[in-house]
Target: 3-oxoacyl-ACP reductase FabG
Amino acid sequence: MLTGRTAVITGGAQGIGLAIATRFAANSARIVIGDLDEAKAKEAAASLNADAIGVGCDVASDSDVVALLEATAAAFGPVNVMVNNAGITRDATMRKMTEQQFDDVITVHLRGCWNGTRRAAGIMRDSGGGSIINMSSISGKVGFVGQTNYSAAKAGIVGLSKAAAKEVAHLGVRVNVIQPGLIRTAMTEAMPAHVWEQKLAEVPMGRAGEPDEIASVALFYASDLSSYMTGTVSEVTGGRYM
Ligand SMILES: NC(=O)c1ccc[n+]([C@@H]2O[C@H](COP(=O)([O-])OP(=O)(O)OC[C@H]3O[C@@H](n4cnc5c(N)ncnc54)[C@H](O)[C@@H]3O)[C@@H](O)[C@H]2O)c1
Model:
């Protein structure tokens, strides 16, 4: 479904990002994994059965994102699919959250996503179009206790993506958003067991999602199957908070 296309996935060294890279590779895309952890990004790229490279990149840094897209162009040509997936959590109730924890989460998610969206769109507009996929969270729709920083950033990604989608739609660039629910990755495995069980009880389908179930939705948005979709938000939550 992605033959001849070059896809960049930020935060792709593990978890949901790696599942997306793997699924895209299985659909014949050329893959660039950008991650804060350069060694792990290279390792992940080497593990894919595809043309793939790993690049060290902090999405919060505009110059890093520019360098990531330059490395992409040098290896495989201009980016056709950009997945802004890199993320962190710094959970704490408002009473205890530090300004640093607030700023770190806003910077990585919101500014990181803005950097990736505008830099990729700038390239795609010159090359005839492309697909940008931004990773939000159901936390941005409903708000979670202990996540005033994360819920704000993830809600912000929806607004950012819709505004960007309107700016570049006439250039053939589509921008869409995925809101995962409870997905089994390192990020969620760090949760205490009783919190995991509480969250699981809220899922109508009665189970957590697997990273590959986010990857299949990303593949849909990356491919021509979604050619008339832009500015949309897909909840991939097993029905939680529908
Ligand atoms: N796991 C879930 O249940 C869930 C639910 C909703 C949304 N999400 C979102 O999905 C995305 C992926 O989450 P995950 O569960 O795979 O997390 P993860 O912690 O397993 O992986 C995140 C990756 O992002 C990288 N990263 C962190 N900061 C970075 C930066 N500044 N620049 C570049 N790379 C950076 C990390 O090194 C890591 O490889 C995140 O945006 C997360 O908020 C996850």
